[in-house]
């Protein structure tokens, strides 16, 4: 699978930025993600409208194995390891993402909010991870940062829906993740709402 899909994916890779994560697919399209300050999720609780719904499904962070334009491949096209892979399609960008669930992690973020940054970044979505998920997320993003595209991408999935698939450029260790890019107020609020699970 890697050989044939890897070549097909070359045409649709997102360009990496010099930020912690640069994204493509899902969410607002072209988004970038930055690690937040260490301990910010624990030391400054988010306002209640930003809190994740108690009954929300956990958010899954899944390593991307390959990407390609158009429809996702059939299970048999995934090769001998077809049971190790799952596919998600982003209809907005007409991109298929092949992910490896066993290598990812499931987390229940503490909060997520959309804000209009005065620093010139425009609308951003900030997500706070709980203490026990921070170390696992740092290890996962550190592993992905060492990979070549598209295997450095991290699909964010909830309830079988791809929310975003940013590319990881470095380990994110602070417990707070900020997604920025070509968001409008509405698209940033929608992504934050989707991450919160309602």
Automatic annotation (TrEMBL):
PROSITE patterns: PROKAR_LIPOPROTEIN. Residues 113-198 form the SecDF P1 head subdomain domain. Keywords: Signal. Pfam families: SecDF_P1_head. Residues 1-22 form the signal peptide. InterPro entries: SecDF_P1_head. Gene3D superfamilies: 3.30.1360.200. The keyword Transport does not apply. This is SecDF P1 head subdomain domain-containing protein. It comes from Streptomyces himastatinicus ATCC 53653.
């Amino acid at each position: 699978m890697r050989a044939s899909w890897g070549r097909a994916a070359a045409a649709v890779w997102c360009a990496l930025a010099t930020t912690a994560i640069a994204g493509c697919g899902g969410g607002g399209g072209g988004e970038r993600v930055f690690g937040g300050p260490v301990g910010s999720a624990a030391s400054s609780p988010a306002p209640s409208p930003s809190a994740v719904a108690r009954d929300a499904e956990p958010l899954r962070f899944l390593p991307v194995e390959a990407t390609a334009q158009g429809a996702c491949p059939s299970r048999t096209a995934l090769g001998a390891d077809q049971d190790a892979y799952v596919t998600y399609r982003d209809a907005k960008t007409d991109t298929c993402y092949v992910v490896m669930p066993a290598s990812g992690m499931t987390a229940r973020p503490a909060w997520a909010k959309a804000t209009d940054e005065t620093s010139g970044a425009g609308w951003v979505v900030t997500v706070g991870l709980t203490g026990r998920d921070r170390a696992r997320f740092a290890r996962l993003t550190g592993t992905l940062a060492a990979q070549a595209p598209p295997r450095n991408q991290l699909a964010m999935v909830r309830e079988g829906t791809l929310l975003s698939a940013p590319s990881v450029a470095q380990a994110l260790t602070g417990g707070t993740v900020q997604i920025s890019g070509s968001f409008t107020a509405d698209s940033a609020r929608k992504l934050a709402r989707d991450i919160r699970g309602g």
